[in-house]
Amino acid sequence: MSGRPWGFTFVELMVVLAIIALLLTVALPRYFSGLERAQEAVLKEDLFVMREAIDDYYVDKGGYPASLQVLVEERYIREIPVDPVTESDETWLLIGLPHDPTVVYDVRSGADGEASDGSLYSEW
What is the distance between the alpha carbons of residues 69 and 75, in angstroms, rounded to a whole number? Predict the structure, then answer.
């Protein structure tokens, strides 16, 4: 035996921490951009499902629903989805007809800000 105590030196620990920090600077931005893309994909799917339910309601009933809750009550959707950007099911923007704004003709996200492609969430 050499008489050297077991363990790591300060320099060895600093080298390992520097390597970990370098790996994190590469991985974290990719993680967050992937998370944002996933939220946008879920938002697009939620909008598609709700619009499809509104269209189905119109075909079946001959008119548009008064609210998204009507779609739930009539079992066109199981529940009002949560907007993945705002994390709320109460921020959806309900678009009515020009001559009858009391019905739900379309639905959009109530989220502020821009998507990764530069478009506004509220225009989806």
Answer: 10
